[in-house]
Amino acid sequence: MERYDIAIIGTGPAGVSAAITATVRNKRVLLLGSARMSDKVGKAHQVDNYPGLPHISGADFAARLKAHLDEMGIAITEKRVGAVYAMGDYYALQLDEDMVEASTVILATGVVSAKSLPGEERFLGRGVSYCATCDARLYRGKTVAVLGSAADAAEEAEFLAQVVEKVLYFPVGKAPEPKEGANLVIVRELPEAVLGEKAVTGLKTREGEHRVDGVFILRDAVQADRLVPGLRMDENHVAVDLMMRTNLPGCFACGDIAGKPYQYVKAAGQGNVAALSAVSYLAETAKAKEE
Ligand SMILES: Cc1cc2nc3c(=O)[nH]c(=O)nc-3n(C[C@H](O)[C@H](O)[C@H](O)COP(=O)(O)OP(=O)(O)OC[C@H]3O[C@@H](n4cnc5c(N)ncnc54)[C@H](O)[C@@H]3O)c2cc1C
Q: What is the pTM of this model?
């Protein structure tokens, strides 16, 4: 399997900046995210504090980021990363049904604002999943709930309906909804808790309870320590040092996910530092192998 030097997760200002710097330093880069770049960029009415781009709209700023990548020949791989596993001297990334490998990883996934549901953490891997494509087959012949707030949640739910017995879809927020079908039902109730003993047995809503075997929570971003097992957090941010290093060697974090202030210029600056730290790490590990 081909191994990238640096996998960068996220196409907001932090991830784009990291990709630009890593490419300038001639590294083999895999940039994962969305061609729409970042909703937090696209939805800004007007940006007045990014040096050199006064009064730019969020949509124009996103277009500038994309144009910069295009100009440098940096492709975006439009895949959602389901999990990142530290394998010793490299990382394995789960992308939908594929796995890819990279010597280093830069997390630029933005901050997660949604609070966890009671039971979500307890049943993670025992009925709670964040990735329909990764885990659908585990629920063949079963009933699952989908809590959809991500832009692609409807699509994921429709895919799940092709695999499992029944999907109960709970819309959360304003994301597009899936098409109802024989085994896909939209339930307009407010999810309150994941229920179970050893594994998930149900979903409690404000209006009642539903018996389900699994709960897919499809948010735009997943808390970083659930994406990367073993990652140290500082409350809801990844704990980093000034070089954007995390507690996992070869894994770096930048932008909103690495702490406040939540600002474009800070995200872009940290993306640059993270990429240079990854470049230094690659040089150090290559040298250590030669010795
Ligand atoms: C409405 C609004 C207006 C704002 N206005 C301003 C402003 O005027 N000035 C200012 O400085 N800041 C502003 N901000 C804050 C700014 O948007 C953030 O600080 C900035 O976007 C953070 O950049 P980031 O790259 O860290 O993360 P984000 O921009 O949040 O990007 C994260 C990226 O990671 C991707 N991602 C997440 N999880 C995964 C996964 N598992 N697999 C693949 N991809 C993933 C997302 O799709 C996204 O592309 C505003 C925010 C909002 C919401």
A: 0.86
